[in-house]
Specification:
alpha/beta, 8-stranded parallel β-barrel, 8 strands, globular
Length: 210
């Protein structure tokens, strides 16, 4: 197993934020206990994406937190990130593994047991499963039931994280499911105090006793 802790996984969102504010929020979130970080920029040019990812990677390294790049294997390679996360319409896991090699972290999105099994068999190191609740992010979301989430956890031997509209007040639906952590975007990125938001999320997840 590669060195990673998926307890509190932050997926960034720079929408409507200046670069300075964005980077400050990311650092505050890391101070609050984020354990895995993914940069997700759907609209940026490749050059702009690389420049921002380099800055985010520098911050993440100060806190010894791995940085993953959403979708873009080329950007991950350019900034020597610790890995990538690929969705169902992105590059297949096996192909990302060929390009990145055995030592990088590769995560995959799965919404069904067959998708989860396929990603694991192709070499995924962890899965992000959801959306558990409707989200306010730009990505198109399809809801995944807690029951399906539980079935996926039983079907694969790699860490599974829940994602989608999660916050400290609604994690109770996940109690009793063998997830390894939660992935969040808005609950931290839109918080006035990202550090406090991260701390609250981490505590709420640990209290579930998953």
């Amino acid at each position: 197993m590669k060195a990673m802790d998926t307890t509190l996984y932050l997926v960034t969102d720079s929408t409507g934020l200046s670069e300075e504010v964005f980077l400050r929020k990311v650092e505050q979130a890391l101070q609050g206990g984020v354990t895995l970080l993914q940069i997700r920029e759907k609209e940026r040019s490749t050059r702009s994406y690389i420049q921002l990812a380099q800055q985010v990677h520098t911050i993440a390294q100060r806190y010894h937190v791995p940085l993953l790049v959403d979708d873009r294997v080329d950007v991950a390679l350019a900034v020597a990130a610790e890995g990538v996360h690929v969705g169902q319409t992105d590059m297949p896991v096996w192909q990302a593994r060929q390009l990145l090699g055995p030592d990088k972290i590769i995560g995959a999105t799965a919404k069904t047991v067959p998708q989860a099994l396929e990603a694991w068999q192709q070499g995924a190191d962890y899965l992000g499963v959801g959306a558990i609740y409707p989200t306010t992010t730009k990505v198109v979301t399809v809801l995944t039931s807690p029951e399906t989430l539980g079935e996926i956890c039983k079907a694969v031997p790699i860490p599974v994280n829940a994602i989608g509209g999660l916050n400290p007040n609604n994690l109770g639906v996940l109690k009793g499911i063998a997830i390894q952590g939660v992935c969040v975007v808005s609950a931290i990125m839109k918080a006035e105090d990202p550090k406090a938001a991260a701390e609250a999320l981490r505590q709420a997840f640990l209290a579930l006793g998953c």
